[in-house]
């Protein structure tokens, strides 16, 4: 199965990544693309800064991707997670899941996002519009609960 | 043994990483945290709430009771907020 | 809320549609894009032909979109459904759901697909590789059950 | 009143649409189907299993017991297979 995992500071191109996953194939019936974007939190934020643990981030996402592949009949999986300074409106994360049928693609993409939120070694901190450095974003209990759905 | 720190754990400890020589009797992650807290205020501040700081041994999430025998790199960090 | 609904024979460009939905905004944190593609069913199919009920197709999708907007806090919704002859590997349907958070975007897109499958007036027939016209695709009980999740 | 047909219902009836003058006493979709089935083999074939064919009155899905009073366009078609 085509599995692509990348951690990068540069933006990604969802159309290119989707084409790589589907080109020349006629067995894929469903592709779910999840894109996570940086919000400005009502005008409060100038940027989010994403710190990550190089090496472990790739290993952990690879492990989560392997779990998704063993749970659903996937035909392709792409996870790209950015790090560094990201402005409101910019993309942070992309998950692509391809399958013959929609249910597997939807569930795998949702599962991957819940795990990325709570298990992948990334940390966000806020940079405020007034030029100051804001707080580290706190982990949300709702994200832990979302992950527990899959246990 | 290499220790690495991320996010506010890194800021509180005041360094991104360090190499340490552990004394006898440090067998688990919890032992290591207890030993670090005795090394100075910056460590006791970083680990003031031990239930919050997460650990990974050689890139794998572990619990406090996990063994650190043979580990090359141990990481400490806050709960993850990726995605 | 930005709501786009189109029934067309031409292909669509997911990147363009996504840009229209998100451009200049900093309140969207999650975009889920579902793409449904024509499969060749193990090499058996030359094409799918999609017949639709003009007028009702738009009205029905608009009604379903309205339901999705009242159930989830969406910030944008796009549904494009093609008709006519579609070859394996080509796109049939696109659903884009944008929201501040991922759960609403995932659920709304999944809901819309379940409803499109069972409530939108489209009918698929197979054209076989041997040049003959195959059967009309039969509705699946699994699709009805999937829809009932949302009742 | 305009009747329209889709997919294999259209193929069995042998036309895409037609205008009909209904006799007195045809009040519901079910009445209309019963009347159509008396018009010829192509109709009795198309509606041979009444539980399968779906109907819409003026672009809205309806049940067999729905009234057709005042309807402009009534459509008959198999279960939908879009998406």
From TrEMBL, chains A, C:
EC number: 2.8.1.12
Broad enzyme group: transferase
Pathway recorded for this protein: Cofactor biosynthesis; molybdopterin biosynthesis
Keywords from the UniProt entry: Molybdenum cofactor biosynthesis
InterPro entries associated with the record: MoaE_sf, Mopterin_biosynth_MoaE
Function recorded in the entry: Converts molybdopterin precursor Z into molybdopterin. This requires the incorporation of two sulfur atoms into precursor Z to generate a dithiolene group. The sulfur is provided by MoaD.
Quaternary structure, from the entry: Heterotetramer of 2 MoaD subunits and 2 MoaE subunits. Also stable as homodimer. The enzyme changes between these two forms during catalysis.
UniProt protein name: Molybdopterin synthase catalytic subunit
Native source species: Microvirga splendida
Record lineage: Bacteria, Pseudomonadati, Pseudomonadota, Alphaproteobacteria, Hyphomicrobiales
TrEMBL record, chains B, D:
Classification via SUPFAM superfamilies: MoaD/ThiS
Matches recorded under InterPro entries: Beta-grasp_dom_sf (IPR012675), Mopterin_synth/thiamin_S_b (IPR016155), ThiS/MoaD-like (IPR003749)
A Pfam cross-reference name: ThiS
Organism domain of life: Bacteria
NCBIfam families attached to this UniProt entry: moaD
This protein's name: Molybdopterin converting factor subunit 1
Organism: Microvirga splendida
């Amino acid at each position: 199965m085509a599995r692509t995992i990348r951690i990068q500071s540069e933006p990604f191109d969802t159309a290119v990544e989707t084409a790589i996953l589907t080109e020349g194939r006629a067995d894929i019936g469903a592709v779910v693309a999840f894109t996570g974007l940086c919000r400005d939190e009502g005008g409060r934020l100038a940027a989010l800064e994403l710190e990550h643990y190089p090496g472990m981030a790739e290993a952990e996402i690879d492990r989560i991707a392997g779990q998704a592949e063993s749970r659903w009949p996937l035909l392709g999986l792409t996870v790209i997670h950015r790090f560094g300074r990201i402005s409101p409106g910019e993309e942070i994360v992309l998950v692509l899941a391809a399958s013959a049928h929609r249910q597997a693609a939807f569930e795998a993409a949702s599962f991957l996002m819940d795990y990325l939120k709570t298990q992948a070694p990334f940390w966000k901190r806020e940079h405020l519009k007034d030029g100051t450095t804001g707080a580290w974003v706190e982990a949300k209990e709702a994200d832990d609960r979302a992950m527990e759905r899959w246990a | 043994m290499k220790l690495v720190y991320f996010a506010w754990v890194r800021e509180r400890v005041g360094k991104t990483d360090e190499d340490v020589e552990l004394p006898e009797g440090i067998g688990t992650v919890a032992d290591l945290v207890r030993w670090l807290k005795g090394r100075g205020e910056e460590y006791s501040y970083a680990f003031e709430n031990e239930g919050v700081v997460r650990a990974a041994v050689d890139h794998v999430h572990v619990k406090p009771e996990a063994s650190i025998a043979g580990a090359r790199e141990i990481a400490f960090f806050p709960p993850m907020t990726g995605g």
